[in-house]
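User: Hi! I'm working on a homework problem where we have to compare a predicted structure to a textbook description. Could you give me the structure for the chain below?
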Amino acid sequence: MKSEFDVVVVGSGAGGGVVAGELAQRGRDVLLLELGPHLTAADFTRWEAKATHDMFWPLRLAPLPGGEMLAFLAGRCVGGTTTINTKVALRAHERDLAKWHPATGLTTERGEPFTPADLAPYYDRVEARLGVRERSDWTKSVRAVEAGFHALGTELEPVTAYTDANCMRCGSCMQGCSTNAGKSTMNTYIHDAWARGLLELRAEAAVERVLIEDGVATGVEYVDAAGERHTVLAGAVVVAAGTLNTPQLLLRSGLEGPAIGRNLGLHPVRLVYGLFDEPQDAHMVYPITAHCMDHQHDEDGGFVIEATTIQDPISFATTLGDEDGPFWGPRLTEALRGFRHWVGVLAMVNDDNNAAVVLDDNGAERFDVDFQPNELERIDSALRFSRDVLEAAGATQIAWSGLASTHVQGTCRMGDDPARSVVDRNCESHEVKRLFVGDGSLVPRTLSVNPSLTIMALATRLADHLAVSA
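Assistant: Happy to help. Predicted C-alpha cells:
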C-alpha cells in the first residue's frame, strides 16, 4: 500500500472533498481519508433508522442551562454532511463577511478585510461544478404556509440548491440521494477524480494524529477498519474533519494555540410544526423548498425561516413537544397518526460564537454552550414568528422540536492574529508549517445562511494555494 503523497486530506465533506478533488484534477498526488463508509446511490434507500446508523455521526449532545440538550447532527460517510444535507446553496451576505475582520483580524493579500468580491470567483466555480439552480417547483405544503407569511407582511423566496433535474422531490435527502440528483462532494469532486485513478480514497480510516517534525507537518497516522495502524507521509496535510472534530485532532497532535476549539458557532435551528385539516405531505418535497429572509440580519431579528420540511417519522416522534413538554403516550400517538397533515418550518438563528469544543482530562470530547441574552432572544423570536406564520396559515395545533445544530462553524478560525485564530489567510496553521485546515471550522463568525457553499468556496481557494505550494 502506497505510503507517501503530495497531499493527504483528512475528511471528505464540503471542505475536504473539494480540496482533494481540485488538487487531484490538477495532477497532484492526493490521498483522501474518510472515517465513515463509502456508500453510493445504490446503497441509499428511504430507511431512516439504517441511514442514521450507517451515515450519521452518533448523536452528540451539549447541555443547556435550562436542562435541555442541543443535538449536533452531521454526516459520517464519503461526502460528509453534503451526502445527507438539503443541498441549499446560498452565498454569505456582505454583512456576514463584515464580521470576519473584527473577529480575527483577517485580511486579504492586499491587507484589506474580505468582501463578497474576494470570494465571488470561488463561488462561481463551485456553483458551476455543482449545477446550482433556483428551485421554484413548490408543492402544496409550501403554498399552504405561504399564506401565513403573506398575512404577516413577509415573503417566501425560492431556494437555490445543488440538485439537478433528476430530483424526484421524494424527501429523502437526509438518507442520501438515490438518484444522484443531490450533488454531494462525493458524486462531483471525489468520484470524478477517483474513477479516473487520479485520487486515492481510503474510507473507514480513523486518523489519530498529524505527524509533526521540527514544526512542520509531515503526514498522519490512522487506523483502518481492520484495526491496523498506518503511517502516511505527505508534503502537506489538510485537516477537514469537521468543525467539531478538526480542533480535537489538532489538540491530540500536540498543537496548543489558544483559539483551537474556541469560538464555536452553532447556528441553532428548531423545527416548528403546524397541524392542518387537509393532508400536506410535507415529507414528499425536497426538504428545504423556500425561505423567508426578511429577518436574516441581527438588527432585523437574526433568523431565517426555511419552509417547508418535516423530519421522518422516528425523528419526528422523538423530538416533538410544546409548552407543556415532550409529547408522550396518547398525545404522541395521535400526532403521529396525523403525520401527513403536519407542515414544518425550520427556524435558523444567528449566534455569536460563544460555544467551544473541549477535551476533558481523559481526552474525551465536551461541548460547552454559553448562549448570551441576545442569542436567546433571537431563538425565542424565531419560534414566536414561526408559530405566528403557521397559525396565520390555518394550523390548528403547533408543536416544535428542541434545538439542534447542523451548521457548526468557527473552531479553527482564519485570521491574521494568532491569539484569536488558528490559521492564517491561506488556511495554514500559525503553529505548524504545511498543516492546513479546510472545513467549516475556518469561518471566523457564524454565517446567517447555510454555510456549505461558503465552505466549498474557501476550500477551492485553499486548493488554488496548495496547487502551487504543495
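For your comparison, note the following. The two ends are 22 Å apart (CA to CA). Residues 12 and 123 are 19 Å apart (CA to CA). Good luck with the assignment!
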